[in-house]
Each structure stands twice: as C-alpha cells, then as structure tokens.
Amino acid sequence: MSAFAKDSPHNKWGIKPLGPNVPPLQWKSAVNKRSLKSNFKSQPVSGKVLLLARDSQPLATLVIPSGENDSIREAAMVLQTMWEKISGAKFPIVMESELATLPKEQVLISLGATLLAQKAGVSAVDLQPEGYRLRTVGNNVFIVGNDDGKGVDVHGTRNGVYALLERHFDCRWLWPGELGEVYSRKSTLVLNPLNEQDEPAVEVRNLRNYYPGEFYPNSRRQPHRQHKAALAQLDRSVEGFVENVIGSGTWFEAMGLGQSFDLQYKHAYGNLWEKYGKKHPEYFALQSDGSRDQSAAPHQARLDVSNDELVKVIAADLIARFEKDPTLASLSISPNDGGRTGFCMCEVCRRFDPPNAPEITLNLGKGHGADKYVSLSDRYVTFYAKIAEIVQKKFPDRKLGAYAYSAYKTPPLYAKLPSNVIVGFVGLGYLSEKDRQSDLQNWDLWTSAASNLMLRPNAFYGGLGYPVLYPHQLGMDIKHCYQTGMMGADFDSLMHNWGGQGLNYYVLAKLLWDPSQDIDALINDYCNAGFGAASPTIQKYFSTLEKLTTQLAQNAVDWEDVSDAVANRSQYRQLRVLTDCFTDSNLDQLQGMLDQAKTQASSDKIILNRIKFLEQAIRYTRAESKPARLFLKMISDKSAGADPANRKQLIKDLQERKTVFQDIYDNHFYSQSLINSMYREWSNEMWQEFGWELPRVD
Ligand SMILES: [Zn+2]
Fold first, then answer.
1. Superfamily (CATH H level) for 41-199
2. Does this model's pTM top 0.90?
3. Fewer CB within 10 Å, N- or C-terminus of the chain?
C-alpha cells in the first residue's frame, strides 16, 4: 500500500482527540517489588595479617593473567598507583607466565581469573556482571570480578580494586583530579584476612560525562561546539581544555559506574525521511495544510505512528539488525527529538488519544505552533507495542528501548506494553518540588504500564552552575525507584560543578551501586574523609545549601509569575529564581561557614585546598549574580534597559566576571563548570543586546 486515498481518515487533520472515553488516571503508589537490601557480603576468615610494604619497600607482587587483557592490567595499575601514593612503594606487575622467577615468600596479589585463582578455587562466575570478590588464601590475595559483559565492556575486577582501596586503605574519590582523591600516607601497608563480595543493585548505572574524559584522545569523542563556544568567551584554548579533562573519567570508574546491559533507547528514526520521504510520504506526520513534508528538519522527522505499514517496515528493519548481530541486546524504537513539523493529527492517530488524558502543550505545526491538546502517550505506547509484538515473535529475548518523554511522557490511560519493551522515563528534577512530585506520581503509574523501567533524568542540567544541593531528595527518589522496579538509571549530563553540586553526584553514584545505603552516613563519610577536623562545619554548610535549594524548589510555583520578558526564555527564568535565592546575605552566611572551616583545618594544606575548592561555587555565584540581576532588570523594564548608566555598569560587571571565571577555570578547574552556562549564554545571545560582544564560533 502506498499513499492513502484522499478521503481516508488518515488524511483528515483535526484537533479533537477521538480516543476511547476511559477515565483519567488516579495516582496510586507503586507496588514495592523489592526491598532495600545490600548485596555486600563479608565472611570472617582466619589467617595471618599480610605485610604488603615496609618502609616504603614493596613486599608483594601484583599478578595478572597471561595474555592480553586491558581491563585487568588497568585494574592492576590503579592498585599500583594508589599503593605507591600511600606508601611510596612501587609494586611490580607481572604476568602469571613470569611467576616462576619470583621468590617463594612473596605475597601475591592476584587480579582476575588467573590460574592461581583457579587453583585456589576463587572465582566470580557466580556473581552478577561487574560484581567482585576479594579473598585472602594463605599468603595470597585474590581480586576477581565478573568481567563478562556479553557485548559490553564491564569491569568487575576493577570494581574490586576500588572497593579494596576504599574499604581497607581508606581511599575516597570525592571529585576528579588530585585534590578529590583521599588517602593518607603510611610507609607500611598491611591487609587483614578477608572474604568479601559485592554486586551492583542494577544493570545500568550511568552518569553521562559532559567532558570528553577518558574517551579522549583515542575515540570519536572530541570537544564539541558547546565546549568551543564557551572556551572562546573565556579566551581559553580547546587544546588546553582537552589537557584539563583527560582523566575526568577516573571518578566514574572509581565509583563503580557502568552498565552490563547494552541499552539502546535514543531517538531512533533520524534517517527515515531520507530513506522513505519520497516514496512513502504517508509514513510521516500529516500537517494542517495536508502535506507530510519533513524536509525542514529531516533528522527530526515526525511520523504517522498509526500507519501499520510503517510499523511493519520498522519491525522488519529491527529484526534484520538483530539477525545480523547476535550480540545486540537491544535496539531503540524511540521517536525523534524536537522537530519543526507538528505531531501527526490525522484522524486515525487521534483515535488513540483519550479525551481524558492530561492536557499538554503540543506542537501542531505550521500556522498553529504550540497549542493545547491531550497527552499522546496512549498513541505512542500503542505504536511501541505493535512494533514490539512483531519483533518479540522472532526474538523473544531481545529488548526494545523507548522513551517516555515530551508529548508522550505522562503514563498511558489504557495502552500496555509487552515485556520486551524498556521504557526510559525522562523525569525528576530538583528545582521545582511541584514538578518533582508530579514526576514521581507519573513514575508510579508507569510501573503498571511497563514491566521494565529506566530512570532517565535531566536533573543535572538544572541550576546553571549555581550550588544547588539536594542529596537527600535525590537519594530518596533513587531508593523509591529501585524498590518499585527500576532496572537502571541514566543521568544526562553530569556537568562537573563539583564545588557546588559534587555531593549530589557522589551520593547518587553510591546509591546506584547499593541503594540500601544510608544517605546521612554517606554524607558524613564524604565530609569526614575530605575535610577532617572541619567536617562538622562543612556538613552544616552543605545542609544550609540544601535548605536553600529546598526553599527554592518549594517556591518554584512562582516561576510562572516572573515577568513576560524573563519568562520567555527558560534560562532567564531560572536565573531569576536562582539570583533571588542566592542573595548576598545568604552568600555571606555560607562564606562565613567556609571561613570557619578554614580556621579549623588551618594546619592541613590539602583540606584547606578542598575548602577553597568548595568556595569557588560561592565565588562563581557572586560574580554571576551581579550582572545577571542587572540584566534581568534591563530586559524586563524598558527604561532601565535604555539607561546608559546601566549599560555601562553591566559591561563593567561582565568584565569583572570574566576575570573571576578565568581564575576559576585556570586554578580550580573541576570546582565549577563554566562550559555549559557560558554555552547557554552564547546560544541565547544573552547580554548582547546591551553591548557585550560574544565571539563567533565555527
Ligand atoms: Zn496519523
């Protein structure tokens, strides 16, 4: 079948939802499917205390399996590096095949599935991928992990190394870079006999790294336009930035982040218009003028999801791809993001839209723009389900990933998904309590429409670099989602605002591995490890920031009241709320606590530097807020905007801000990411109308 007949309901555009008249959803709390129980196990073992290093001399050897194995070698190098930092002793790493030449009395630290481990009966095959076991047998220490990711790279042994360092050598990774690495120097290293194991609670634990990080320079991840636009404003080079971010991935590794399931659920139909636009325009969304043209933004083409021929074409393509690659665990069926054209408003599509679905603002295309309509979730869930049922017959074990997002974010009223669909729920943020509560309710309702749910928040985009802190709420939400069946979480994107928001990242990463952990205990441990004698004051400082953030989020209903000129850009709206919250007197109070902490830490240079690291968030907030407040006044009040004195003042404030930002960038790189907020200013052409020049970027 090709194009629809002229009088086909597929060609009848309208704005009346024609779906079944089912009642609106009533929120009821989701059923708890599992309890908060740790996978960590430790059994008492007898044996002698092992002496690993004395007077900065190594008395042990790190043994790795013979043959190539980058992950295990890397894990051994992590251990080697950290033990050298702690003790000054550099431990040799040898392949098992070279063992014969070693003195007999040596303590051997065996990593991965060595023959030695096999002989001792220590393995990790019974554990979840990425899980690990640490065990001493006689004179030997075994660190074994399940490194079998079935098509994805997993690092169980490496997780074991980091856990050994954290639990038995008091190491912590508070943030990327030297200053965030916690360890104390001692020239003698010992290890008590142990038998421990642990496994991650969920298969996907992803915090997306906004910096090129560990992927550079070997891979396709180069600095992109966002980074370049921001760097140009700071007068800093792309090459220097790349140098700075090498190693940003270490923190993610140390926290055991990763995934053992290769989940695909990103926007999937980028090439459909190119492929079928000419031959099968009827696959694409009907517009009010009768056209289905998607050429204005072909990669964001919108589809006529009620077209069953299209469903068959998509399913056949998925089946072909699964056939071609037996290692593929999943493929995506998510619609494209954004798009210039409107969603399909043909009659057949509208027959899926229940009139009682929640009201949303929808892009209806040319001549209509954003208008009120009902949520499209039932329509999209039906589309997902039809594709999934065809694919499931052929490949019952493979999964299909789909977003709950945009116009199809709210839970469906009647449509249900087959068990091979994984829904990525895009939601949860911490700058509006109202939105958070509504997202939590939506999550709960989705748990009965889909059997596999992923949490996919954009929370870390919020706050524009201000020190918004919410570890308790974030932590409680992770616990709740875990208990109600979350198969994993994928946070987009960790912006590297470590000075002001690092505690959010830390608590989150820890809970994704083991959601049974106590949030206060994690915060207490973070502060004790990083700030020693100043820990109580730093905890007070963090809790003050958290209180301010909670207030901000609770007052966020007022976001709608901000003046039109400010409200039409979400960045400005956020800035208004943030500058109102972080007043000078609040900042003075916060600074006072940091000053007190500095006095308490006076003799410890590293702790002092860590407090200075936190302090950059306050410094950033002051430097940013001064011109921002004036700017918001100037755009919302015409006469203020036209006043030459204000314009002059704004340029002066921005010049001062630039000096502060350059200093933060050069001397406290990981404390504060200037990259994302500077990029947003650039893309919004902020400040420009009042005479501040923004650089051109290719
Ligand atoms: Zn349609």
1. Chitobiase/beta-hexosaminidase domain 2-like (3.30.379.10)
2. yes
3. C
